[in-house]
Amino acid sequence: MTMMVAARLHEFGEPMRLDRIPIPEPRPTDVLVEVKACGIVPNLARVVANFFATQTPDRKGMPPLPAIFGLDPTGVIAKVGEQVHSIRPGDRVYVNPARKCGSCRMCRSGEPLDCPNFTFQGYFGRSQEIMKAYPYGGLCQYITAPADALVKLPNNVSFEAAARFGYLGTAYAAMKKLGVGPGQTFLVNGISGMLGLNAAMIALAMGATRILGTGRNVALLNRVKALAPQRIEVFAADDAKKAVADGVDPLVAWAKSMTDGYGVDSVLDCLPPGASAATMMRALYTLRRGGRAASVGVVMETLPINGYWLMTNRIGLQGSVWFTTGEGEEMAAMAAAGTLDVSCLEHRIFPLTEVNEALAGMDNRNGGFTNFIVDPTRAG
Ligand SMILES: [Zn+2]
Predict the structure, then answer these.
(1) Average of per-residue pLDDT across 140-149
(2) Residue of 161, 163, 166, 141 lying closest to 352 (CA atoms)
(3) I want to staple 174 with a disulfide (CB 3.0 to 4.6 A). Which of 135, 308, 320, 344 is the partner?
């Protein structure tokens, strides 16, 4: 077999087309993966519809067209390059799409996520050269990837569940920076969304004693609480409320009532694009003195942070993007051991022939519980 089917975007704003293209040959340090499932993210629909054209009219950071998108592929190793020794054909893997240059100071220091050329295979990024070297996103039948980007999957983790590793890993990497763990109270701002729900699942796995979560949809919040009623508490936030630091805000008062008046140890902001700075600030004000917050959300407004408040309360604030392949291996080990339970995900699986329908329907979901998958092995 020399040819495969790939969903390719020929022009932004148009549907993807199914094209027959050659199956690539892996370079010496690469592998060829037969894709079994690819997770798709709501933002992909916005990207291919050219939603961001107004911000980047020259499409800076976008891959050359025609492009194969697909951020979270999982599958089986079909072939390995001659310098690949610890991965074998038949191995089940998640392909971490985070690509780095490999030779800059940050890459050589073991900090690939800080590479100035950081690029997502199958999405967008800072380096056109890397996008040309790895032009295969998961919305096709076979992709090449560097051997050091593979997370080996245990047999008890399905390809569909592992296709959620992008969200899970994004939450996990940020939560490691926050020191989430036993004895800690951790608040997830936006707990019922794609990222927030996964943060709750990871917090349970990391042993956080008490997990607080905010959201708007009461039915979804109750579903999140049902994952671990003894450890999870939820708060239906009213968006109209103003952010105030003095505890008058019912959200802050609630968080303090859950923590003997201290405030929470850490906050993870998981708010979606379009959320207001005030909604993020309200969550930051639930922190105790010395508390730490990380943002993996997409609040685009400027935060009104008072430097005096930040200093006197010894607040830490950290941005976080994606996760290392090593962190992916840790998640695979947790899933294998059963400490990370991904069984609450509802997989909504589309054949490759229905990729455009899948993208068009992503706003219709049960919050973070719905897991959108394209399966290139299904002909349709
Ligand atoms: Zn680099």
Answers:
(1) 98
(2) 141
(3) 320
Question: For position 345, what pLDDT does the model report?
Answer: 97
Give the N- to C-terminal CA distance of the chain in Å, as an integer.
20
Model pTM?
0.95
Chain-centroid distance, C-alpha 350: 20
Every domain of the chain with CATH number 3.90.180.10 lies at 3-164+345-375, 167-319
- CA distance linking residue 100 with residue 85, whole number of Å: 21
**Residue type for 29, please?**
T
- How do beta strands 98-99 and 92-95 pair? unpaired
pLDDT, tens only, 269-281: 999 988 999 999 9
Assign 246 a pLDDT band (cuts: 50, 70, 90): low
The domain made up of 3-164+345-375 is a member of CATH 3.90.180.10: yes
Once rounded to an integer, what is the mean pLDDT over residues 291-297?
Answer: 98
Place of tokens 């794609």: 194
How far does the centroid of ligand 1 lie from the alpha carbon of residue 337, in Å? 33
CA distance 45 to 254: 36
Measure 54 CA to ligand 1 centroid, in angstroms. Answer: 29
Q: Can you tell me the distance from the alpha carbon of 145 to that of 129, in angstroms, rounded to the nearest whole number? A: 15
d(C-alpha 203, C-alpha 375), whole Å: 29
**Cβ-Cβ contacts under 8 Å for 67 (sequence gap 6 or more):** 8, 9, 135, 137
Report the 10 Å Cβ neighbour count for 134. Answer: 24
Separation of 108 CA from ligand 1 center, angstroms? 7
Ligand 1 centroid to Cα of residue 26, in Å, is 21
- Reply yes or no on whether the pLDDT at 25 is more than 60: yes
CATH hierarchy code of domain 167-319 = 3.90.180.10
- Residue 292 has φ and ψ, to the nearest 5°, of -125, 140
